[in-house]
């Protein structure tokens, strides 16, 4: 696994300083949506997350709340869906991306953000095309849907109804994964992942599932055991670690979503390896 740490931009960082979203690979119409939101310079988590996702990598993204984590995955996800849509002769009838959230409130927040970006990026409206959520469409199965934003329980309901077809899913995001496990969604997450896994195993490698696990800061997850290592990294780089990206391969995706402990152990091992190298 590849680990990338991003230091605060006001200090000497562990990764290249990026001053614009264009440098990260976003297209002009997507960047235009950010301008409407009053956002001009990417945050640390966006600097590491956006290019990795546009490059097709499955990753763990970790940073503080309020650091721009949602845009770090929504911006590239919307661009990827638009790219895929341009290559299709027929609009898909089922979602190609799922964003799982820990609460109805988080679903609403992510959905409204996605809808705003998609509108300004010249996609069709929610009822006509790209972005569906369980509470906004009574005929989800009949709409041309690009993204489903829902809780794990809602997602299972739609899979059972046939509105979401696991074989059609190319992108999966677990937003605030640690919170979802803390809130008792573990069994639902496993059920969704098992259905996706069964479908993905029959696909060619280049058509596999791209997964994003979004978490709170690694110090919050791992606690005191990580403090000495973080202090060492921050002193050596003259700045605070503001974002972390951990690349995963297909098998690691399924292994790390088995439990929050599995993710914690892997992050701790990778951090220790990063420190000793």
TrEMBL record:
<dbReference type="GO" id="GO:0005524">
    <property type="term" value="F:ATP binding"/>
</dbReference>
<feature type="domain" description="Helicase ATP-binding">
    <location>
        <begin position="50"/>
        <end position="236"/>
    </location>
</feature>
<dbReference type="InterPro" id="IPR014014">
    <property type="entry name" value="RNA_helicase_DEAD_Q_motif"/>
</dbReference>
<dbReference type="Pfam" id="PF00270">
    <property type="entry name" value="DEAD"/>
</dbReference>
<keyword id="KW-0067">ATP-binding</keyword>
<dbReference type="InterPro" id="IPR014001">
    <property type="entry name" value="Helicase_ATP-bd"/>
</dbReference>
<dbReference type="InterPro" id="IPR011545">
    <property type="entry name" value="DEAD/DEAH_box_helicase_dom"/>
</dbReference>
<dbReference type="InterPro" id="IPR002004">
    <property type="entry name" value="PABP_HYD_C"/>
</dbReference>
<keyword id="KW-0347">Helicase</keyword>
<dbReference type="GO" id="GO:0003723">
    <property type="term" value="F:RNA binding"/>
</dbReference>
<dbReference type="InterPro" id="IPR036053">
    <property type="entry name" value="PABP-dom"/>
</dbReference>
<dbReference type="GO" id="GO:0003724">
    <property type="term" value="F:RNA helicase activity"/>
</dbReference>
<dbReference type="InterPro" id="IPR044742">
    <property type="entry name" value="DEAD/DEAH_RhlB"/>
</dbReference>
<keyword id="KW-0547">Nucleotide-binding</keyword>
<feature type="short sequence motif" description="Q motif">
    <location>
        <begin position="19"/>
        <end position="47"/>
    </location>
</feature>
<feature type="domain" description="DEAD-box RNA helicase Q">
    <location>
        <begin position="19"/>
        <end position="47"/>
    </location>
</feature>
<protein>
    <submittedName>
        <fullName>DEAD-box ATP-dependent RNA helicase 39-like</fullName>
    </submittedName>
</protein>
<feature type="domain" description="PABC">
    <location>
        <begin position="202"/>
        <end position="277"/>
    </location>
</feature>
<dbReference type="GO" id="GO:0016787">
    <property type="term" value="F:hydrolase activity"/>
</dbReference>
<dbReference type="InterPro" id="IPR027417">
    <property type="entry name" value="P-loop_NTPase"/>
</dbReference>
<keyword id="KW-0378">Hydrolase</keyword>
